[in-house]
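Chapter summary example.
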Amino acid sequence: MTFRDLLTQNRLRTVIALLPLLAACGGKSNGPTGNPNTPGAFTASVDNSAFSATVAAASYINNAFIASGSQTTGSTTRTISIAVPNARNAGVYGLTIAGASATYTETTGGVTRSWSCFIGMGSGQVIFSALSASRAIATFNFTAPANAATGATGTRTIASGRIDMATNK
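The structure predicted for these 169 residues follows.
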């Protein structure tokens, strides 16, 4: 791995770490119609429990795709964040290659626990059917082990994920 690769990987992880914070701020969503409540904009199943983001954002710049979506129910906010480097066009991209990652977080009562998939941990993929500077349509799935430092335990399985969002707005 070159120094440049390491910098790119660290930048993507930093952006992924910050996306839930941006989503939590209630800023503009980049859902298909600009409405954060648009069905299907960012959905998945988390351990067989439905997830539908009410706030989401996506970006595709310099062949790097990042997206994050959050859903709040009661006092719990659940967030899914995905980063795919070198995504040049529609196709299948693994989430355990250098620079790629997927994270699921749960925040309740000010305590955040997270589970992550990245190089050397977990498994998963993103399949883009469309990817451009203005729109991303993809399916995704990943299995993420707990980040023990956050107090999380076990593994989370994110399945049947779907992203259909405008990018770079």
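To summarize the output: The first strand starts at residue 42 and ends at 46.
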